Amino acid sequence: MYRNILIATDGSELAHKAVDHGIGLAKSVGAKVTAVVVETPFNVFAVPASRTAQISREFEHHNEAIKQHAAKVLGDVANAAKKAGLSCDTVQVEHEQPYEAIIKTAEDKGCDAIVMASHGRSGISAVLLGSVTNKVLTHTAIPVVVVH
């Protein structure tokens, strides 16, 4: 049924539950795993006016920080997959809209399922903040497993 399962993670404790679930699912059906981390691109407008002269240093700092974060998160997933005896590809993407990057990665890598966590926000919080998980659910035809 599933041959390649995309696990979307941000390295949070809740996302770790989705990683465990995704690896367990992949192991049970003999699928490979593709893990993705979506990082936010550098925002020049977030740099205080007093530091605009140092913008290139801020850009370099941002790039190094997201590379380190992604390497750690993806390394953890790859190690967990390896311990489970699974093949695992890792992908780091910079994108303004994480849900678009998750869907595109799933399509580009030929994934036939997406596993991700949801913070379970409801009410006005869900309306105001939106949900990456909800946007993935409503913008893809690929089956999505949501872990709470």
Describe this structure in words.
- The chain has 148 residues and is an alpha/beta fold.
- It is built from five helices and five strands, in the order βαβαβαβααβ.
- It has one domain (4-147): 3-Layer(aba) Sandwich (Rossmann fold), CATH 3.40.50.
- Helix 3 (98-108) packs across helix 5 (132-139).
- The two termini are 23 Å apart.
- The model has no long low-confidence stretch (mean pLDDT 90).
- One letter per element, helices H and strands E, the order comes to EHEHEHEHHE
SSE class:
alpha/beta
Stated plainly, the CATH topology is called Rossmann fold
Strand content: 15-25%
The CATH class: Alpha Beta
The major sheet is characterized as: 5 strands, parallel
The CATH superfamily is HUPs
Range of helix content: 40-55%
